[in-house]
Amino acid sequence: MSPAKSLRACMAETSLIHIMAAHSPLSAILAEEAGFDGLWASGFELSALYGLADMSLISMTQHLDMLRAIAGRTRLPIVADIDTGYGNAINVIHAISEYERAGASAVVIEDKTFPKVTSLVAGGRQELLRIEEFQGKIKAAVATRQDPDFLVIARTEALIADLGEVEALHRAQAYVDAGADMILIHSKKKDPSEIESFSRAWTGFAPLVIVPNAYPDLKAERVKTLGNIRMMIYGNYGIRAAATAMQETFRRIIADGGVQNVHKDILPVEEIFRIQKMNEIKAAEARFLC
Ligand code: SPV
Ligand code: MG
């Protein structure tokens, strides 16, 4: 079964699927071992990995290279965050064929102008595309995919741009009319009221995707009672968790004047060997090296 087919099958079986952000093959392996249903090739996480803001600064090639590396180390389906699709509908045609070939099972395209401004920053200059122009990008994505199971997810940033629920619903319906399989509705509010209200008001045919980065108190059990929401993406938790651990460990090493204390609190190197599949290397050595 292709990863795209298994992603659709997983959604058909389960009322809500859980997708973890990955910025590297290592984070993808750990997400798979933890039990997530899929991976989010997050633009925010990869930008942060490069020490850059999530403002269309990393290139499609950089994102594709990491996605390929991730796809080579996990069986989980990958939902690719392609931001605005790197330009207009023509750029989207190119992007979809590249991402599909690289091993993505789905893409999320957002209705902002290029270059984008990261969604959660206070006072961000959020500019949205004309609805017709974004519909053209969705149509281009749908017409380009080779695998009919490959999901085209349209993301509206209407709430992020403070345009209100009526505009968000209107845009979401327009994107479904253009062929989107799902709608990602994003909110920067610190509580889930906007998302809860939108999901109750949504009568469109396509299921919803949410990214509870700004409103962490919305639990999966509650999401299931709202109806319509079928996918939860944990959009920046991988890089934040990694940065938390590195920050704390690095500071302690400086403060302690050595690694004599921290070594007990971090993974032993044998655990990294396990993740690297050193046992397979050992077996290959025994078999092939003379
Ligand atoms: C990402 O993870 O890149 C996202 C989610 O798009 S957010 O950064 O919250 O916009
Ligand atoms: Mg993003």
Automatic annotation (TrEMBL):
GO molecular function terms noted in the UniProt entry: catalytic activity
Swiss-Prot/TrEMBL keywords: Pyruvate
Superkingdom of this protein's organism: Bacteria
Coiled coil: none
Xref: Gene3D superfamilies: Phosphoenolpyruvate-binding domains
Statement: the UniProt record of this protein carries the keyword Transport: no
Pfam families: PEP_mutase
Iron in keyword set: no
InterPro entries linked to this entry: ICL/PEPM (IPR039556), Pyrv/PenolPyrv_kinase-like_dom (IPR015813), Pyrv_kinase-like_dom_sf (IPR040442)
Entries under CDD domains matching the protein: ICL_PEPM
Family according to the record: Belongs to the isocitrate lyase/PEP mutase superfamily. PEP mutase family.
Protein name listed in UniProt: Phosphoenolpyruvate phosphomutase
Species of the source: Bradyrhizobium retamae
